[in-house]
Sequence to fold (596 residues):
Amino acid sequence: MSVIPAAIGGGRTLFGRPRSGERQAQRPMGGAMASLLLWGYAAVALVPLLLMVSSSFRTNAQLITDPLGAPWPLSVASYKEAWTVGNFASYFVNSLLVTCGAVALSTVVATMAAYALARGRSRVFRWLEALFLSGLMLPIHLAILPIFYLFDGLGLIDSRFGLALMYGASGVPFSIFVLTTFFRQLPGELEEAAQLDGASTWQTFSLIMVPMVRPALATVAVFRFVPIWNDFLFPLVLLRNEAKYTLPVGLTTFFGENATNYSAVFAGLVITTVPLILLFLLATRQIVAGLTAGMTK
Amino acid sequence: MRRRSGLLFVAPALILFGMFVLYPMVTAFSYAFFHWEGTTRGGFAGVQHFVTLFTKAPFRTDLPRALWHNVLFFLGTMLFQNTIGLAVATLLHRRPRTRRVLQTLYAMPYLVSPIVIGYLWTLLLSPTFGPVNQLLTAVGLDSWALPWLGDPDTALCVVILVSVWQWIGFPVLLYGAALGGVPEELSEAARVDGASHRQTFFRITLPLLVPAIGTVSVLTFIFAMEAFALPYAVGGSTGNPAGATAFISLLFYRTAFDSGATDAIGTSSALATLLFVVIFGGALAATAVLRRHDRRITG
Fold:
């Protein structure tokens, strides 16, 4: 499912301030029974993930004799195997390079463009903004064949750099969409003051405006990171050499060769997932901090 | 900001976006209307590739089956994800202290790559050592300990349920936001007039949630039509077992990159174009219906 509305919905409810009009006096529906159901469902959501983690710390023999046993004593043998024999070390580095490169690229170009779109008065900018936003609705995966031939023509097949360019481009519409809204909310007096003090357009942008939208930059970066990290089709089609695979594609190779080596597969699944969980936990704090910082000003 | 410096600011994003998104998207359609010999483009083919999709093997049988699976996937997801999501969001409403924690917990599975989710459930549901079947046997439900993903009769159902499990946090968040936007005065007034909880929900709250339900439905539709990574992890590109988890995007992938047919690009592009038309047509139709409903409520 598209991550765009998820990001907007998440931005509003996960990280947003409580709505001022909300009445806390109203009693929740269902009472204790409903609480039980809600926490029960939380268990349904989490237990399979916890099982994935706990299984990764057990040996294969333990898993076969008692799949639900406790991961004690902790065994990290499966991680060693996945990391070295299973090439997860290189998959991990590749994923990190491609994802960070793409997120940095789309955030930088989108921040510049969003500033101009928010402040430009000419009609060209309205038109360009509409063009960028149309990209929010394009199912880019359906264009995989032309992308494949474009990459072939540019000599970018089997290139992590090419993949990062591609993801960077696909992140432009969403990043512009969020950042333009933020730039529009900033008062114009700041720029006028900076300009009077002799700052160039670029100085005003990089020294005054960019620091002001830092919370939005964090939001954009986090919400672009997740789908790129998880994407499967593009690396599957555009990468050839196993040494360049990103985690999702590397995982399919590993699973194909080690389908019965359960604990190592579990370790591979955890390695693929952990950075996202870490990012989410770290960024929640950062984004909330950014929002509250803005409130006290 | 002056126009010239503004355009300089926009240029990098525009070049990147134009080159890797707009240009491929626009040319994608033209691919379907030409003959192809491997990677060289031949003469104009008209609608011949589309005809191939409906008349020639293997598409004549594989395409309707895959499309049917996409439709079932959409209906199943709608049925479970929407109802459970709405129920959970309603129960979460007015629980300010636990809501955020629970929403975060429900959202955890959708952070995880669909490929990881697919392999995780393949292992959990494994007939030989899978904990799910062990658990079922332990509580006396031996007859339920089936090879869930190995049996063509149950595999698609399992794929749908796994997907629902992964994405449930999304409707919970969206419906939560929508419920927050429903004015309390309305349901209070209904309560004062003697309406029961049930009546208030179905007569007041639910009709006001229709726009949100519509948004979720449209996004679910697009999502279901594009399903790729999860079925790939569960059943490979051929949709094992016995094509029970074959979806259109898998058929597209096999045609384009695995078939080795000389005209593969033409046929697979026709397939992609078809899928695009289905997705856009469906989304536009649903949006039009929702607009009409919106006008009825506000006007």
